[in-house]
Amino acid sequence: MWLTRPLRERSTQIFLGVLFAALAIVTFLHVAMPEDSALYVSAYTVTLLGKYLCYALLAVAVDLVWGYLGILSLGHGAFFAIGGYAMGMYLMRQIGDRGTYGDPILPDFMVFLNWQELPWYWLGFDMAWFAFIMVLLAPGLLALVFGFLAFRSRVTGVYLSIITQALTFALMLAFFRNEMGFGGNNGLTDFRDILGFNLRTDATRLGLFIATGIALAIGYVICRGIVTSKLGRVSIACRDAEARARFLGYRVDRVQLFVFVVSAMLAGVAGALYVPQVGIINPSEFSPLFSIEVVVWVALGGRATLYGAVIGAVLVNYAKTVFTGVMPDAWLFALGGLFVLVTVFLPKGIAGLLASRRKGKQDEQDTPTAPSTTEATA
Amino acid sequence: MSIIEELSNRDRVFEFLTPAVSPVDTRHGPILYMEDVNVSFDGFRAINNLNMTIDDGELRCIIGPNGAGKTTMMDIITGKTAPDTGSVWFGSRHNLLTMNEPEIATLGIGRKFQKPTVFEALTVFENLELAMATDKRVIPTLRAAMKAEFRERIGEVLETIGLQDLRNQLAGILSHGQKQWLEIGMLLMQKPRLLLVDEPVAGMTEQEMERTAELLTSLAGKQSVVVVEHDMGFVRSIARKVTVLHQGSVLAEGSMDQVSNDPEVIKVYLGEEA
Amino acid sequence: MLPRLSPPQLAFNRQDIIMSILRSLTLLLIALVSVLSLPASAQEDDPGKALLNNLAEVPASRVEEAINAIVSSGDERARGWLEAYGNNRLSRIDDTGQVVIVLNNRGRDWEIANPLTGENMGEMSRRELDRIAINNRIRGQLEGILAMLDLNATDPDVREASAQDMMGKVDASLVEPLEAQLEREENASVRNRIEEALAIYRVGEGNLEAVDVLAGSLHPRARAALNEAVRSDNPALADKAEQALASIEQKLKLNRAAETLYFGLSLGSVLVLAAIGLAITFGVMGVINMAHGELIMLGAYTTWGMQQLLPGQPGLALIFSIPAGFLVAATAGIIIERSVIQFLKGRPLETLLATFGISLILQQLVRTVISPQNRTVVTPEWMSGSLVINDALSLTLNRLYVLAFALIVFAALMMIMRKTRLGLEVRAVTQNRAMARSMGIRATRVDIMTFALGSGVAGLAGVALSQLTNVGPNLGQNYIIDSFMVVVFGGVGNLWGTLIAGLSLGTINQLLEPWAGAVLAKIIVLVFIILFIQKRPKGLFPQKGRAAEG
Q: Do A332 and C488 count as a contact with CB atoms less than 8 A apart?
């Protein structure tokens, strides 16, 4: 079974072990330590870590398409944001009549805009199960339509990257419009509770953190399951020699579409878990800058390794937290420098460094997946 | 996991798009039939009223100077290039012009590229695994498990192409000749009815060439083989019937001796060689 | 620049009102100062004195006569007097009977000036001043009368402007003087205006022939008058007015189309400028330079810097900025190519990421070194204002210049590509890098040169953009995605493709804007391109042939 295969694999076991250990330690330090202890982990930090884990899941999703399929998506932030909006709409409906205007159905911003009734696409979002399905379906559907069009026409390489960037840019502009019914500029915020738990309590925050960790674990196993299956090898085949794969009888466009859709859904889940933790979703998540930043997390961690994406996302975002606290002006210099350094000096990322270290001791027996630069010509 | 299942349903919806894999019908004639095919790129006529038939089980060599349209012809057969006019039939049932590359490949036409093209980031074994004739749709591929019979089949081919010792090496580290062999091995895994082989012996040693010649001749009869090659010695060693292409159309056809005595051919092509 | 009377404000608040009062005051002061230059000796027998006294003394029923007397006197100071009169600022000193202009009527003591000489007479208690009364009817007419005054100005532009002001304000009292004016007037366009102004009045009076005069006019007031006439009780008039309106509407449509086209071409020319450098580098090296927008920004900042170096000479600075902007951006481009891009040969996606990093650094550099705020780049006088084609169509000059500049840059690039050795080598490398190299073309040198050229053109785009938008650290970002779209739409390695793609995308955007709004128009264009790429993955003008097939 493709999904259980990764569980028998050493690298996945290590990854899951480290992840669950981290979850357990943070939980323990948060719950069991007295607040004045040096080891105490505050609720703020727990949420911050939860945010990193969301980013890590997003990075894994990006690595799945970039690392194994060669599709550099500069628009994965769009799927993340759409998942986030789906969750935000649910949280918005949960506010009920506790909003500033006290309308039992309409969110505050709609009352403010003098809307009389809920737009049709908001219907059903008061039900958690519906919203959670939409978290998967909405980004998945967008990826399906977009990917179907793009891959069928064999739009690849730089062109595809640019088009994905245009996609998220167009969506950003669209979501900025008040008429869209997603709160325009301000987005959705002022959330109260999720599944009946108050979002402002420490317990809920811890719960969300753990849920994110589990989601990351599941997402990782799904991706690992795909890349270690025959489909994963076909993906690599499509990445390195598209024409050859086609002449072997593989529908390259279908392979790309399937993996792209799965990746978009994972990004959507990441976004959905992100929103209740940061307490807001607005169109800035669609900004092309964010999407391309995600790519550099993956690049830093190491392309086509999955665990590298997690390392990269956590490292860069931790650095960002530190930098923006200490010297905010320097952050963009650091980020810009990171883009250049990683691409020029560290093309295989941190994971590549680790692997070459390990290789010194023993021969690599993992599936080597270094992206090759040769292209098929016929 | 229900979502993944749903996606698999999506594939099933599109199932009618994939052709029903029916045996190619060659009871009433040739396996490949090309008639009045024309292709031009920006006014340059790459293929000019090309007519050709390949019989079932035949081994055919195609020669011709550079720019004669050999590669373009293969592109047309495999669905990479759509001709401006003309018709191309596989057996008497399948119109190749209405199919895309994967469909044609699934139907049983294998192709080896001029420049050896293998998946360099995968091992030799995995390269052959991907080429194996199985259900190549997305979800079955995701679920595919390595069965003993597959392993056996790959083992056989590995032996045929002489790469048993390198089975777990990355294809990227193979020599040029070994890559040629691997690609031929991938064709064998596909079990095609028709093999199109573009310059199979480029970069091979004398011995390797002999073995390739042996292999290709042994295939003929069970499968049809079309070989495009520049190396005259090699062509002479395997050819039964030779087609000479010139400026996009057939200049001469016949046995190697007939062709090499054809005054037209001597003029445009062999004249320079001899 | 001279302060000008503020146009009517839409939203009044206290500040606005104070501001406009202040402005009128300065205007008045300036008028007075200019009057000061008159010889002050002849004060006693100044005919103006009698005219003013007359205005102050006549009963309300004869005020019109007094005003007409002032107007027909041809006195250059008449405008100042009448304006003051209209603003309740003409007063008489109780004791001496002298007529004065009140400069400031706040508080108890008012500042006054002599209307004849303009000399400031200091402050005087408001109790000692007697305001010369004006009723609303007269006040209403004053505007027209003041315009009449300007109709006698020597500058035909002033005459035309005042005739235009008069449209819709003509009343019975003005008809006669206007007709007389028409007799005297020789300038055709001024005559035209006066005729139209009269016709508007006459249409209101039910005159059928006047409708014909208005049928040729595109002025909004002419249309307003005709609209009025359509609702009149006279069926013949209503009918005729309706026909006239229809023909005007037709003309307006044409003009609106022309205007949209102009805006479209203008936007398009900006896109072409921004994208063409990108098209060159992308075409030759196959890399997307994400820092291209920041090179544009550098060009714009060069213009700003040049204007700081040459204060008071915005025009000269702008002209110097053209070579300077090119050089600055080209140098930056060479540095980027040598320090990063050359190490990423054959890895287009990595190049894309690295150049994006560079773009972040450049942006932040500008924020740190110069300022995060937008800088103002002055538009030289010869580039401001607009070219008035007719009442419904005027073309802003700065956009016209940018359009011309874009075409010149395009033509120059075409020349470089077609006629120079570099161009030949660039085309060779674009089509087949390996072959070009084997023919002895030093591809590395070509890379550097093309990158410098493409970057330099980005700098030129920045110089041009500084005349149209704010110059700030985000300037480049706003154009980069649009530039990509142009390149993708036009097809790689084809300058004509870029030109046509840029101009057509600009025009499409402008065509959509009226009914979709600016943001939605942009979204529609993006979606259109995304769909277009499905149909033609290699753009409008793809490279064809065997080399491109692989």
A: no
* Measured distance CA(A33)–CA(A27) in Å, rounded: 10
d(CA C280, CA C457): 10
Long-range (24+ apart) CB contacts under 8 A made by C484-487 are C484/A162, C484/A165, C484/A166, C484/C275, C484/C278, C484/C288, C485/A162, C485/A166, C485/C525, C485/C526, C485/C529, C486/C271, C486/C272, C486/C274, C486/C275, C486/C278, C486/C279, C487/C275, C487/C278, C487/C279, C487/C282, C487/C539
Task: Give chain B positions within 8 Å (CB) of A367.
Answer: 122-123
Secondary-structure class of domain B31-273 per CATH: alpha beta
Q: What is the count of structural domains for chain A?
A: 1
- Mind telling me how many Å the CA of A72 is from chain B's nearest CA? 18
Instruction: Test C544 with B44 for CB contact under 8 angstroms.
Output: no
Highest mean pLDDT among A338-352, B34-48, C376-390: A338-352
B126 touches chain A (CB under 8 A): yes
What is the per-residue pLDDT across C37-58, written as a single tens digit (0 to 9) for each? Answer: 444 444 557 788 888 888 888 8
pLDDT > 90? residue C16:
no
Dihedral angle sign, alpha carbons of residues A9, A10, A16, A17: positive
Please give, rounded to a whole number of angstroms, the shortest distance from the CA of B152 to a CA of chain C.
36
Contacts of C550 in chain A (CB under 8 A): 377-378
pLDDT above 50 (res C393): yes
Contact of B183 with B197, CB cutoff 8 Å: no
CA distance A67 to A77: 17
In chain B, where the domains are located:
31-273
Question: For chain C, which domains are there?
Answer: 14-37+45-138 (no CATH), 151-232 (no CATH), 258-544 (1.10.3470)
Phi and psi at residue B242, to the nearest 5°? -125, 140
Q: Which domain holds residue A238?
A: 5-361
Of C286, C360, C526, the CB nearest to A336: C360
Nearest CA in chain C to B69: C546
Q: B193 pairs with which residues across the strands?
A: none
Q: What is the DSSP letter of C92?
A: E
The 10 Å Cβ neighbour count of residue C415 is 11
Q: Interior CA angle at C20 toward C18 and C21, to 5°?
A: 65
- Indicate whether A276 belongs to any domain: yes
User: How large is the average pLDDT for residues C382-395?
Assistant: 82
Are B113 and A252 inside 8 Å of each other by CB? no
pLDDT in tens, B190-238: 888 899 998 888 778 888 888 888 888 888 878 899 998 877 788 888 8
**Alpha carbon distance C33, B274 (integer Å):** 105
* CA–CA min distance A100, chain B (Å): 38
Residues of A whose CB is below 8 A from B101: 243, 246-247
Question: Residue B117 and residue A262: Cβ atoms within 8 Å?
Answer: no
Cβ contacts of A332 on chain C, cutoff 8 Å: 360-361, 363-364
Flag whether A366 is in a domain.
no
> B41 in contact with C at a CB cutoff of 8 Å?
yes
Q: Which one-letter amino acid corresponds to residue B25?
A: D
Element (H, E) at B245: strand B241-246
**In 3D, which of B171, B220, B225 has the Cα closest to residue B200?**
B225
Contacts of A377 in chain B (CB under 8 A): 113, 115, 117
How far, in Å, are A44, B71, B91, B212, C436 from residue B217 at the CA level?
74, 22, 22, 9, 41
Query: Which H or E run contains B155?
Result: helix B148-161
- Tell me, yes or no, whether A378 lies in a domain: no
Q: Assess if residue A107 is contained within a domain.
A: yes
Q: From the CA of C542, how many Å to the nearest CA of chain B? A: 11
Which residues of chain C does A154 touch, with a Cβ-Cβ cutoff of 8 Å? 537
**DSSP symbol at C218:** -
